[in-house]
Amino acid sequence: MHGQQFYKPIEIARELQISTSALRHYESWGVIPTPERTENGYRQYTKVHFAYFRCLRALIPGFGFKMTYDVLRQIQNSALNNALWLINEEQSKLQEEKRITEQTLALLQDPQLMTVKDKQIKGLMTIGEVAAMTDVQTSAIRHWEKEGLLSPVRNPDNGYRLYSPLHVRQILLISTLRKTVYYLDKMKEIVQAVEHHSIEKATAVAEDALLRIHRRNRQQYTGVHQLMELCKEVGLIGDEGDARPSIHHTFDKERDH
Predict the structure, then answer these.
(1) Angle of the 200-233 helix axis to the 80-109 helix axis, nearest 10
(2) Considering the chain, what percentage of its residues have pLDDT values greater than 70?
(3) Common-topology check for domains 9-92+214-256 and 112-198
């Protein structure tokens, strides 16, 4: 430990523009390694702790608290692959969110457009057909109906719900809106506006949602960059980005022989 550089909590807090109590919270939640203490009880944060804190603050905007904590706990366990696949899964979800939002925009901007995911929108469809086309669960569609967001027609013979191309547009719009901060009443107003062919507001909302997705994508990459820097600091990857074999991996290989 000779020559080890230590940081005071206030130094890291100032650098990251957070409070020292926030540092203690992160430590108590087990998302950074427990620091050593001096004889009089002061924490001794090292470059590794600084890298953890910096990474944590960079990951939260793009991935949220829970995912950030899960990823950093994996890093503490030297489970690099687990951490990276967790990140990859979240980025995949954002990619799908972007696809849905872009599809929503296309349908709003062109009322004559009658395809979703290269599937033809029929005049009237069952809830199962609409769910498959929009990648929205039937339970969600039924819930939105109960909330007054959707008004499907009913088959007079058997009472089954039937959905028109207008409903497809509304379902995709709701799917986009529910990932934003819109309250139910506001969502109702926007979704019903589509029904009355007043799509300007709905289009503006979908465009705003797409901008938020682009922003989150940039935030995710900023977080991933700091995650890679942390992995270098703790020795999980080299400067070229190649993973270094962990103790467990080396042991497993020796055991196999």
Answers:
(1) 170
(2) 89
(3) yes
Q: Comparing C-alpha atoms, which of 116, 58, 66 is closest to residue 89?
A: 66
> For residues 148-167, b (16+ Cβ closer than 10 Å) or e, as one string?
ebbebeeeeeeeebbbbbbb
Q: Is the C-alpha dihedral spanning 44, 47, 51, 52 positive or negative? A: negative
- Domain 112-198: top CATH class: mainly alpha
Token pair listed for 227? 């995650």
Residue whose entry in the numeric block shows the structure tokens 């944060």:
45
Q: Domains of the chain: which residue ranges?
A: 9-92+214-256, 112-198
Q: What are 210-227's pLDDT values in tens digits?
A: 999 999 999 999 999 999
Site of tokens 């705003």: 208
3-state helix vs strand vs coil in the chain, percent to 5 = 65, 5, 30
What are the beta bridge partners of residue 37?
A: 43
Token representation of residue 194: 């589509």
Provide the whole-model pTM: 0.75
Instruction: State the CATH architecture for 9-92+214-256.
Output: Orthogonal Bundle (1.10)
